[in-house]
Amino acid sequence: MRCSYQLPLVGILLFLLIPSQLCKICEVSKEDLHLNLLLNTMINSKYTSETQPANVLLSLRLVGIHDQTQTQRLVQQVKNNVERKDSNLSSGQLAVIILALGACHSPDEIFTYDKHLLSHLENKFQEELENMKAHDGNPLTNFYQLGLDVLALCLFNGSYSATEVAEFFNHYKKNYYFGGQFSVDTGAMAVLALTCVNRSLTNEQIKADKNLKKIDELISFLVEKILSEKKENGLIGNTFSTGVAMQALFVSSNYYNESEWDCQQTLDMILQEISQGVFNNPTAAAQILPPLMGRTYLDVEDCPYVSGLDTFNISNHVPESERSNSSSLIMVYYSVVINETYSINVTVPNGSVFLDVMKAAQKKNETTFGFTMEQSSWGPYITSVQGLYANNNKRTFWELLSDGKALSQGVGSYVVHEEENLEIRWSTY
Ligand code: B12
Ligand SMILES: *[C@@H]1O[C@H](CO)[C@@H](O)[C@H](O)[C@H]1NC(C)=O
Ligand SMILES: *[C@@H]1O[C@H](CO)[C@@H](O)[C@H](O)[C@H]1NC(C)=O
Ligand SMILES: *[C@@H]1O[C@H](CO)[C@@H](O)[C@H](O)[C@H]1NC(C)=O
Ligand SMILES: *[C@@H]1O[C@H](CO)[C@@H](O)[C@H](O)[C@H]1NC(C)=O
Ligand SMILES: *[C@@H]1O[C@H](CO)[C@@H](O)[C@H](O)[C@H]1NC(C)=O
Ligand SMILES: *[C@@H]1O[C@H](CO)[C@@H](O)[C@H](O)[C@H]1NC(C)=O
Ligand SMILES: *[C@@H]1O[C@H](CO)[C@@H](O)[C@H](O)[C@H]1NC(C)=O
Ligand SMILES: *[C@@H]1O[C@H](CO)[C@@H](O)[C@H](O)[C@H]1NC(C)=O
Ligand SMILES: *[C@@H]1O[C@H](CO)[C@@H](O)[C@H](O)[C@H]1NC(C)=O
Ligand SMILES: *[C@@H]1O[C@H](CO)[C@@H](O)[C@H](O)[C@H]1NC(C)=O
């Protein structure tokens, strides 16, 4: 059971009556210095993709940190992007934008785009479902984005069919898995979306709704899966899925026993990772901040005012990734694996990232090592190598590995080591 500070007075009185051990408070105080690090990354990073400012805006608003200058800057960037990219936005990108513009906006601020953007999202969500019917259950994007879609439609009163949601989220369970491995991020986003749908169905008092039962069972299944991905050290899935997993567990506490999750341990582990600079990407930082402060994406209409940005000690330096500045060179092995393996040895400055290795190889042989990429909220994403493109309808992608093990970071962040065996492999998920 989660106690939240935003409860009305009655809630606070109840809280005082409940024996304290029943109430798992798992959040950091706003004086915690880790927050400075996250905020610095969120605010001072140079954004390289459309969805980064939207993720940052959503995060700041949810946790109740307000700063007029920053908010205006972010809102403007988000709106510019919508206008520029409009029809090219994926469903989930549009959903994040709607969440960001709509969450906790002040009463004097008109949420101008609401109707237009929502109907746009309704269409995009339908296109995802159509694609699933036509392509063996594969959405245009992925189930994480379908979760975001339903969440935004549900929270802002867009129209969607609860029957379709119950049906599709249940029937095509393969979408919760990548390469046989349960995707915690995906399952947790679905729990948030389904919980919203559950609440609105329950509010509308369609108690006998058969969808409720299906949704209830599905949440239960997903929560169990998420908890089964809990690691010894407290992380759930990996470092980057833990935030959204925490959110899912906050809102679904009547689906598991208190003894099944030590929230404090998870929190401590995350704080340790923050100190080590692991959350140095604005999207990563934006995703972890709300759960650290006990907030979830379902709280968009229930916004506290915590403080202004000026109470935090944020430098105005662009956070630098800790790249070694030495002029020493290192040699790494690099292979492109399709049906055949194409190998090369390349020499790069110490401190280089995977992408630098790919560029060096490409320079040596464009035909064999040529590649394309797209900017995304997590940095550069590899879309093709040797002209062979990843395809969501076929569930194909370019997988990154080191010494045969899949990496948990992308080409723009992963720092390579001397004599490391790097590989980019044509795979299915
Ligand atoms: C779906 C998904 C995938 C799909 C993407 C294709 C598809 N069908 O959509 C698949 C399974 C192919 C995939 C691959 C990879 N992924 Co992935 N993926 C996700 C997931 C669950 C959702 C992404 C999404 O749609 N976001 C919402 C939309 C609105 O934002 P977006 O920026 O427009 O989304 C795009 C990018 O996120 C991009 N993308 C997906 N994964 C990754 C990873 C990196 C490093 C980058 C730069 C981009 C990227 O695909 C999205 C659709 O176009 C996220 C979880 C999360 N918390 O975001 C993990 C996540 C982003 N992936 C991750 C990783 C590590 C990878 C891989 C590097 C794994 C590997 N060893 O090969 C590869 C990417 C390699 C490459 N080619 O560059 C990590 C990134 C962590 C980090 N610090 O960088 C995450 C956070 C999962 C995790 N918890 O570890 N992924
Ligand atoms: C949409 O994307 C396509 C291909 O990626 C590009 O050619 C086109 O210019 C884009 N349109 C807009 C409005 O950005
Ligand atoms: C959605 O509808 C509910 C009930 O009709 C209402 O309480 C809520 O304020 C609405 N939310 C938005 C964002 O319009
Ligand atoms: C979902 O709905 C069921 C039945 O109305 C209810 O028992 C359950 O508590 C709800 N779950 C959440 C997370 O709201
Ligand atoms: C919680 O534990 C009790 C007894 O230990 C058990 O009966 C119950 O099924 C458990 N609930 C869940 C959701 O696991
Ligand atoms: C703010 O942080 C910097 C280092 O990041 C430190 O040197 C400085 O003392 C801090 N100031 C306050 C008021 O805490
Ligand atoms: C590369 O840099 C790291 C520290 O950044 C150092 O530990 C390592 O010894 C360096 N390797 C070489 C070969 O210079
Ligand atoms: C890093 O290298 C740049 C240029 O090569 C130099 O200007 C800078 O002073 C170096 N920084 C450190 C900390 O060595
Ligand atoms: C890999 O080899 C198989 C069997 O020879 C073939 O069917 C397939 O098209 C090849 N894949 C690629 C990407 O070349
Ligand atoms: C790369 O270097 C290793 C050891 O230095 C050598 O065994 C291997 O044959 C080289 N590979 C290529 C493709 O040059
Ligand atoms: C690139 O590699 C291919 C074999 O993978 C080879 O046939 C070709 O000659 C190479 N080109 C150059 C410029 O080295």
Automatic annotation (TrEMBL):
Gene3D superfamilies attached to this UniProt entry: 1.50.10.20, 2.170.130.30
Classification via InterPro entries: Cbl-bd_prot, Cobalamin_Transport, Transcobalamin-like_C
Predominant location: secreted
Biological process according to GO: cobalamin transport; cobalt ion transport
Entry annotated with the keyword Disulfide bond: yes
Alphabetized UniProt keyword annotations: Cobalt, Cobalt transport, Disulfide bond, Ion transport, Secreted, Signal, Transport
GO terms for cellular component: extracellular space
Keyword Nuclease in record: no
Single annotated GO MF: cobalamin binding
Signal peptide: 1-23
Residue ranges that the Swiss-Prot or TrEMBL entry lists as coiled coil: none
Subcellular location: Secreted
Binding site for cyanocob(III)alamin: 141-145, 185, 238, 287, 381-382, 398-400, 407, 429
Transcobalamin-like C-terminal domain segment(s): 351-427
Disulfides per UniProt: C26-C263, C154-C196
Similarity comment text for this entry: Belongs to the eukaryotic cobalamin transport proteins family.
Stated name of the protein: Transcobalamin 1
Organism: Sciurus vulgaris (Eurasian red squirrel)
